[in-house]
Amino acid sequence: MYGLLTRLMALSPEGDAGRNALVRAVCADAMSLPPLPAQGEPDDDTVLAEFAEQFAVDVSGISAEQRAAFMSALGDKAFRMIGLIFVADFVPRVRSGLTSLGFAPVVEPVVWDRDTDPLDVLLNQFVPTVGALRALDPVTTEVVRLRGAVAHNCRLCKSLREGAALDAGGTESMYSDIEQYESSSLLSARHKAALRYVDALIWTPSAIDADVVAGVREHFSDAEAMELTLDVMRNAANKIAVSLGADAARVEEGTERYLLGLDGQPVYS
Predict the structure, then answer these.
(1) Residue 40: strand, helix, or coil
(2) In whole angstroms, how far apart are CA 9 and each of 18, 71, 133, 249?
(3) How far is residue 58 from each of residues 6, 47, 234, 264, measured CA to CA in Å?
């Protein structure tokens, strides 16, 4: 997993080094975190900078006008650039989270990858690799996923329910408590510790409270804490769809059951 994070940091597609440097600087500044290393100087691109900043601060706040301007300005590079924005946005959060939990730092790249499609590394390699991890129990994994769905207002994510979590005791009553988890009598102390950490990575990654860290360390093993951190990033890939307005629910009413396969890919009935 550390190797995949380093690969994501190494992405600097041919012709986009300046844009990549820009979004890395903008996203880091929005989160008050150190930026990822970048190749060259940032471009001066107001449309891209504003889109990347809103993506990092609150992706659900991207307006139709911002989206249209971004798509028009980037043209056929728009989807690749959103992948780069996501890396600039979320890898610093993960680095901060791992550091706060006492894990070794993620190694920075020494060679730039100018050829690989960012979305291929992100969606076809990183996301399923994290999805295949099984240190966490399925109910905690689902509770964490649904907290991210609410935070980013992903309609698609909110319309889904993972089957293994349902079979292991996850209920709609429990899930409905996620938005007000501190007062819930259905969510366990372990769930609440995880959710505090999720919120910290999403909203205050530069200032993860010592009590939040202590809660994770009290309730989760090293393997579980690592998976929990990576799950927050995996789930946050929904920001890509939300930013494009492509997060429509799979069902008009209620929810749809799916299974997270052993390969980390969702399986729908």
Answers:
(1) coil
(2) 15, 24, 22, 31
(3) 25, 16, 17, 27
Q: How confident is the model at residue 269 (pLDDT cuts 50, 70, 90)?
A: confident
What angle (nearest 5°) sits at the alpha carbon of residue 93, between those of residues 2 and 106?
A: 25
124 and 71 in a common domain: yes
Extract the tokens encoding 252: 């008009």
User: Can you tell me the mean pLDDT for 115-138?
Assistant: 96
Q: Which of 82, 98, 129 lies at the terminal end of a domain, its last residue?
A: 129
Q: What is the DSSP letter of 254?
A: S
Domain count, the chain: 2
Q: Which of 61, 95, 129 is the last residue of a domain?
A: 129
* 84 and 171, same domain (yes or no): no
Q: How many CB atoms lie within 10 A of CB 25?
A: 18
Unique residue bearing structure tokens 């307005």: 245
